[in-house]
Amino acid sequence: METLRSPREIEQMRKAGLLVWEAHRVAAEMLAPGVTTGEIDAAVEDYFIKNNAKPLFKGVPGYVPFPAVTCMSINEEVVHGIPGDRKLVEGDIVSIDTGCKLGGWCGDAAVTHPCGRIEPEVEKLLDTTRGVLELSIELMGKCEWWSEVASEMEAFVRRAGFSVVEAFVGHGIGREMHEKPQVPNFWSGRSGKRGDFKLVPGLVIAVEPMVNMGSPRVREQPDHWTQSTVDGKPSAHFEHTIAITESGPKVLTGGPNGESW
Fold first, then answer.
1. For residue 51, what are the CA distances in angstroms to 2, 18, 30, 35, 111?
2. Which of 101, 109, 119, 243 can bridge 54 by disulfide, Cβ–Cβ 3.0-4.6 Å?
3. C-alpha–C-alpha distance, residues 87 and 92, integer Å
4. Residue 96 belongs to some domain of the structure
5. Which CATH number do you get for residue 125?
6. CB-based contact 133:151 (threshold 8 Å)
């Protein structure tokens, strides 16, 4: 069963979430043609260290431990891209995912940025993915069960002509980055086997839709981390850490004035 958090604990999580939002601002200000993904990652790491926060991603176990504090996935890369020497170019889209632990509590968020001007259909992909995350937050204040939200999320993406990645889902979050429950962004096919859950005060989850322009299927790359679309078409990824409170859903990884990105 998922662990429910008290209002005081949610306020502590908000401190971690705000720091994650600020780290994303550091990354966004650097993003431009000619900048390497490794340079952006180093700036985010430095920001977390200066604010006494522990990066959540660096050292995550795998075939090789994850070597960076951000996942940076470009164009057809869906998730878990490793920052390095690659220079961004005009027309790229860059999904940046990062998280930290502050005072024993975790925050996790992702956003996909355009690098300069992008094609209209790619811009629609970003708008749709951002929009389906915003839809989920709105519905979390109206629905009783997650399956109701996930069904509407899937329908929203399909109406736009895109596909929902089913290989990866969101997650509960609190003292650890990944806690129960699993949080799918769809509710057809195999999603029902993951188990539904009620949207009750105290629940804190990371909702992270990943939307592909073409096939929903992904393929792992030789670095053992990066997941790319099987057809080479672009993918977008947006994520927020969200708490259900007595007064409705609260975005913990938003800005100080309620702004999203």
1. 29, 12, 19, 24, 21
2. 101
3. 10
4. yes
5. 3.90.230.10
6. no
Give me the half-sphere count of Cα atoms (radius 13 Å) on the Cβ side of residue 29.
Answer: 8
The token duo for 114 is 């355009």
DSSP β-ladder status, 204-207 and 179-183: unpaired
Q: What is the pLDDT of residues 83-132, one digit of tens each?
A: 999 999 999 999 999 999 999 999 999 999 999 999 999 999 999 999 99
CA distance linking residue 169 with residue 191, whole number of Å: 10
Instruction: Report the SS3 class of residue 6.
Output: coil
pLDDT digits (tens, 9 = 90+) for 17-26: 999 999 999 9
| Cis, peptide link before residue 209, omega less than 30° from 0 | no
pTM over 0.85: yes
CA distance 25 to 43: 11
SS (H, E, C) 79-119: ECCCCCCCECCCCCEEEEEEEEEECCEEEEEEEEEECCCCC
Total number of domains in the chain: 1
